[in-house]
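in:
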């Protein structure tokens, strides 16, 4: 049965669906970057609220900016902006639910003025973001805004008073803020949901910096009046596969062009800083706190960095899925060792969380065979991930005299992976916005064993630290000479 508003009532009983009248839902949130995670997380929480009769004035309008987002536009348009969320339990049980909290989807290249109109509308009180870690244009060395991207430059040059239109998230958000200020409309809140330390603080710094390049007074006004709450988000959401689409159709009779699949676990820790109001998210389990940082660091340095710890070594060892790696006792021991001995000592106290339980729970989540999270997904965009998730752990431990061996092996395994050839001589498709740069550095290993580590934009001053470079060189040599599994066995057997 083709998913649409008209077929909702005809779906099988074991498929959840909106219990509310979607015609009564009005927009309150504009979201940039509608991918799997947003649909499995924020959109799901809003749908839960609406099923309780709450937040009906907080419908989501999705916005796509990239050419590839045309596919999402078409899928959402054909299904009245409905989609199916399928929770995959470890025992093989599938739990499908149709999510109805998205009320519209705008593909900005089609009609940028429609995006601006929605952002300027006083009903829009929150602008939320999942634009990836690299979407904030942060210079990794200085921590300052990097405006060199051609799309940003085009937005800075656009004549917006004479028909010009933005192209980037930065351009749309800043121009909408300018128009709201001119009209006397209250500013919206910008809520980043990306995996960045201090994601709200980063969003504020970068967006305000862009605004100052447009108009210094506007930038100052935004810094003073626009709220940017921090939050921590967590739910493993792999890329939807053709098999997932087929299983939804064959098992439940639902024809969905682009469902989303996820694990059962979900968490959202949110700073309560919404001057223009927010949905009552605490009513559906969102943790509203004064300080998100401890939870955020816990997730980034334990879950996210552990994903990097397993993906390169796992791929080089012949695995292709995260659950295969996490079910291997050797890798599970390595991951727990990294989390307990290297990551956890760098964390502040996390209120209400037993880190020992959390670490073991992560291994169980990674080992869920039904999620089938690919290592290729986890290995992608490493130059945006390793500097934010793992390098701070290494730096903290080097400064405090803590352990760093396992982290050094992770960095070495990324270098080995980035050479683009696996241990069987088969090509690796390296996906990274700095692909050419990282691959060129990785392939210089034979003439300069520290070539990969010399990229200070990625690693800062790690190349100057002799204890770290000694461990890194030894691990990289072993990865070449002995392979990933033997290298890992040697490390764990010597501890």
């Amino acid at each position: 049965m083709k998913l649409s508003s008209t077929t909702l009532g005809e779906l099988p009983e074991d498929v959840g669906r909106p219990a509310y009248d979607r015609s009564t839902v009005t927009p309150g949130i504009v979201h940039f970057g509608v991918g799997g995670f947003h649909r499995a997380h924020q959109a799901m929480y809003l749908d839960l609220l609406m099923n309780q009769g709450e937040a009906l004035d907080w419908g989501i309008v999705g916005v796509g900016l990239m050419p590839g987002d045309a596919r999402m536009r078409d899928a959402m348009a054909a299904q009245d902006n409905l989609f199916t969320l399928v929770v995959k339990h470890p025992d093989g049980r599938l739990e499908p639910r149709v999510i109805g909290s998205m009320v519209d989807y705008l593909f900005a290249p089609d009609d940028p003025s429609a995006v601006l109109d929605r952002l300027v509308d006083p009903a829009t009180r929150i602008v939320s973001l999942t634009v990836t870690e690299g979407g904030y244009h942060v210079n990794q060395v200085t921590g300052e805004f990097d405006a060199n991207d051609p799309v940003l430059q085009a937005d800075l040059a656009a004549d917006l008073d004479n028909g010009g239109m933005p192209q980037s998230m930065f351009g749309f958000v800043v121009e909408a803020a300018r128009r709201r200020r001119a009209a006397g409309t209250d500013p919206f809140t910008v809520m980043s949901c990306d995996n960045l330390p201090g994601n709200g603080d980063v969003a504020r710094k970068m967006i305000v910096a862009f605004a100052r390049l447009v108009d210094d007074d506007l930038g100052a006004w935004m810094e003073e009046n626009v709220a940017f709450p921090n939050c921590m988000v967590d739910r493993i959401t792999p890329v939807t596969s053709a098999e997932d689409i087929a299983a939804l159709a064959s098992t439940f009779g639902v024809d969905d062009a682009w469902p989303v699949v996820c694990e059962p676990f979900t968490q959202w820790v949110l700073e309560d800083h919404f001057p223009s109001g927010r949905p009552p998210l605490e009513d559906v389990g969102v943790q509203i706190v004064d300080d998100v940082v401890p939870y955020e660091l816990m997730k980034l340095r334990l879950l996210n960095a552990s994903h990097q710890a397993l993906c390169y070594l796992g791929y080089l060892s012949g695995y292709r899925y995260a659950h295969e790696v996490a079910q291997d006792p050797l890798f599970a021991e390595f991951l727990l060792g990294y989390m307990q001995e290297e990551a956890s000592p760098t964390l502040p106290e996390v209120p209400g969380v037993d880190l020992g339980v959390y670490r073991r729970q992560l291994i169980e989540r990674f080992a869920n065979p039904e999620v089938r999270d690919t290592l290729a997904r986890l290995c992608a965009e490493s130059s945006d991930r390793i500097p934010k998730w793992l390098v701070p752990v290494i730096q903290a431990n080097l400064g405090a005299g803590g352990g760093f061996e396992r982290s050094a092996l992770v960095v070495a395994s990324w270098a080995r992976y980035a050479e683009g050839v696996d241990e069987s001589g088969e090509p690796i498709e390296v996906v990274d916005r700095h692909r050419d740069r990282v691959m060129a550095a990785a392939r210089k290993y034979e003439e300069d064993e520290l070539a990969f580590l010399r990229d200070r934009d990625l690693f800062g001053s790690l190349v100057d630290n002799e204890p770290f470079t000694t461990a890194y060189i030894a691990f990289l040599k072993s990865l070449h000479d002995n392979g990933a599994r033997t290298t890992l066995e040697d490390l764990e057997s010597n501890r």
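note: The longest helix spans residues 293-316.
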